[in-house]
Automatic annotation (TrEMBL):
Protein name: Serine/threonine-protein phosphatase 4 regulatory subunit 2
Matches recorded under InterPro entries: PPP4R2 (IPR015267)
Family affiliation: Belongs to the PPP4R2 family.
Origin: domain of life: Eukaryota
GO CC annotation, single: protein phosphatase 4 complex
Pfam families listed in its UniProt record: PPP4R2 (PF09184)
Length: 119
């Protein structure tokens, strides 16, 4: 029997795939934002930098991994009124992060561009 976590992860991925391919979504923005936040954290945790020591993370990322995750998540959660116009590309990146970006700092820069360009 699948756990609720596995089902939620599959549903989140399916939702992201639809948004990435069509740019459309049917969920309330707060629900979608929560799913994006969850998936963002999952994707970031898959990079080797997540398991480095804080000193190594500072050297590689310019900040610790928890600081990076918090900063990127807060940027996403700051969209209160609705999604950024770059939502479709944001979902594309989250779904294919490892194949597009070889390290966490490059991924972080790409994600920052999409959140900063919307303000």
């Amino acid at each position: 029997m699948e756990s609720k976590h596995e089902v939620a992860e599959e549903e989140t991925r399916a939702l992201l795939e639809v948004v990435a391919s069509t740019g459309k979504f049917w969920h309330h923005w707060d629900v979608l934002k929560s799913s994006l936040s969850y998936h963002l954290k999952q994707v970031l945790s898959e990079y080797p930098e997540a398991n480095m020591t804080p000193e190594q993370q500072n050297s590689s990322l310019g900040e610790t991994y928890p600081e990076l995750v918090k900063r990127l998540d807060e940027a996403l959660l700051s969209f209160v009124e609705g999604p950024p116009f770059t939502l479709q590309r944001f979902c594309e990146i989250l779904l294919n992060a490892q194949s597009i970006y070889s390290n966490l700092s490059k991924l972080a820069l790409a994600l920052e561009k999409f959140t900063v360009s919307c303000f």
